[in-house]
Design goal:
Helices cover about 45% and strands about 10% of the residues. The longest helix is centred in the last third of the chain and has 30 residues. The protein has 9 helices and 11 strands. The protein has 3 domains: about 80 residues, no CATH class; about 90 residues, no CATH class; about 150 residues, no CATH class. The strands form 4 sheets. It has a 4-stranded mixed beta sheet with strand order 8-9-11-10. Strands 5-6-7 form a 3-stranded antiparallel beta sheet, with no helix packed on it. It has a two-stranded antiparallel sheet with strand order 1-2. Helix 2 crosses helix 4, helix 4 crosses helix 7 and helix 5 runs antiparallel to helix 9. By secondary structure, the chain is α+β, with helices and mostly antiparallel strands. A hairpin with a 2-residue loop joins strand 10 and strand 11. The structure holds zinc ion (3 copies). The site of one zinc ion (ZN) has 8 residues, from loops. One zinc ion (ZN) binds next to loops.
Length: about 350
């Protein structure tokens, strides 16, 4: 995540800021500019694209701009949501604050990486949509992805509930942002891998054959807990269940790593290492960049591994568990490299099609 400058006074503002803490200016995030803009006294922002206003969902934390002419003036992120609790459902509606914050954070990163997004409004079959629903005592919402539709269980925005699930499932890490990053991995598998015979072949070489029975694979996982020696080949135990899950887990880690490197770079965080008296000193140097995905995967990991090590130690100093409780084996470096190449070529293809559309005046 980048940090932003208040357009009025220049002080730092954060991605989720609705106003500047220094000068009080009313701010909103303009996705089409990937910048924070200042609203005028009437709550509007005008540029070449027209008149914009705050998204109507500002009272549960949305600080994005919406096109003024749109019905009910919802922003791009909120318009990707297909279903959510009604406003009279106060408890569940409250869970939307954390959940939609994670969703906007995800979307910012997809834009930063240049990944294409086709909304369910443009493409009802296979377009991206979010169904935000909440489990109850007698009905369980399954978090998942199906043909462009990502379902998220809002009840997991309750820390105590999500943490209990994490412990009972034996997971090292479980967050709302992590859920979004995993599920969007399934979406991009469908859009970028399944749609291309060449990519599908390359995917099978790296992750295995996805045509094995999915339901049976999941049964085996939840029944036996997967194989014990998974650590040499997979980023998480869950990744062992099926090539689709392996890809989604790897994709999520690619997003974890590149976003955290960008956040570090935004503050100028850099590591000179623990000192030359240690033989591994030269491996523990990190100089993250604001555009980490511009490097090779090996280059990204050369900055990431020492930073993760240091951040884990920082967390331990505060009595917390590791910030990044994962080890990346050599086999997973290859899988991350696959995701990196896929993301890079999708971004270039998207930029090319945007340029040619611009050139022909469409
Ligand atoms: Zn300001
Ligand atoms: Zn919104
Ligand atoms: Zn999955």
């Amino acid at each position: 995540m980048r940090i932003f400058a208040c357009p009025h006074c220049g002080h730092i503002v954060y991605f989720d800021s609705p106003s500047c803490l220094e000068c009080g200016a009313d701010l909103a995030y303009a996705r089409h500019l990937r910048e924070m803009v200042m609203l005028d006294d009437d709550g509007g922002y005008r540029d070449d694209e027209g008149l914009w206003r705050r998204c109507r969902n500002e009272r549960w934390g949305c600080n994005w701009l919406a096109v003024d002419a749109l019905e009910r003036a919802e922003c791009y992120s909120c318009r990707l949501t297909r279903h959510q609790p009604g406003e009279d459902d106060t408890e569940r509606f409250g869970w939307l604050v954390d959940t939609t914050h994670a969703k906007r954070w995800l979307l910012f990163q997809l834009d930063e990486l240049g990944l294409p997004i086709t909304s369910h409004r443009e493409q009802p079959e296979g377009g991206l949509a979010f169904d935000l629903d909440a489990s109850t005592d007698d009905r369980q919402v399954m978090i998942g992805h199906l043909n462009g539709v990502i379902t998220i269980d809002l009840s997991e925005s309750e820390d105590s509930h999500r943490e209990a699930l994490r412990v009972s499932l034996g997971e090292a890490y479980r967050t709302m942002l992590g859920h979004f990053r995993h599920e969007i991995g399934h979406y991009y598998w469908q859009v970028l891998v399944a749609a291309s015979d060449t990519e599908l072949e390359a995917f099978r070489r790296e992750f295995g054959d996805e045509r094995v029975d999915y339901a049976q694979a999941l049964d085996t996982h939840y029944g036996t807990g997967g194989t014990e020696d998974w650590g040499a080949q997979f980023i998480s135990r869950y990744a062992t269940t099926h090539p689709w899950e392996d890809f989604a887990e790897t994709f999520a880690h690619y997003l974890h790593i590149t976003d955290t490197l960008q956040s570090a770079a935004a503050f100028g965080l850099s590591m000179s290492g623990p000192g030359t008296r240690f033989p591994e000193a030269s491996d523990l140097v990190s100089h993250p960049s604001l555009a980490p995905a511009d490097a090779t995967m090996r280059g990204i990991l050369a900055d990431w591994q020492p930073l993760a090590l240091a951040l884990n130690q920082v967390n331990r100093s505060l009595g917390k568990r590791d910030l990044y409780p994962f080890v990346i084996p050599e086999r997973v470096v290859g899988k991350l490299g696959f995701v990196h190449r896929l993301v890079g070529s999708a971004a270039h293809a998207d930029a090319r099609s945007a340029n040619s559309a611009g050139a022909s005046g469409q």
